[in-house]
Amino acid sequence: MPWIKNLYDLPPEEEAEIPKVAGSLDEAMAALNEDREFLTRGGVFTDDAIDAYIELRKEEMDRVRMTPHPVEFELYYSV
């Protein structure tokens, strides 16, 4: 459905009705897990494939979480 209105000027109640994309990989993986019934319908994906994909992404998320941000490095490394 095309939007005819300026989305920046919507009242809060209309803005709340607009679907949002995930704000992080954590949120995206939670949404993927919640869509499991849809994804497995018709044998498109198996539960094992979905679980393996989520686990792989979790390993990546953990690595990112454990890595200092460049700004943190700049601020605190020389201390």
Question: What do these coordinates show?
Answer:
The N and C termini lie far apart (54 Å). By secondary structure, the chain is mainly α. It has a domain at 23-76. 0% of the residues are buried. Helix 2 packs antiparallel against helix 4. It has 5 helices and no strands.
The mean pLDDT is 91
Share in β-strands: under 5%
Outline: flat
Largest sheet: none
In angstroms, what separates the terminal alpha carbons? Answer: 54 Å
Could you tell me the radius of gyration in angstroms? 19 Å
Order of helices and strands: HHHHH
Number of strands: 0
Uncertain segments: none
Give me the number of helical elements. 5
Q: What is the helix content?
A: 55-70%
Given the helix and strand composition, which structural class is it? Answer: mainly alpha
Describe the structure concisely.
With 79 residues, this protein is mostly helical. It contains five helices and no strands. One of its GO terms (molecular function) is glutamine synthetase activity.
Main attributes of the structure:
57% helix
Write the layout of secondary structure elements.
Layout: H1 12-15, H2 25-34, H3 36-40, H4 47-65, H5 70-76
Helix pairs in contact: 2-4
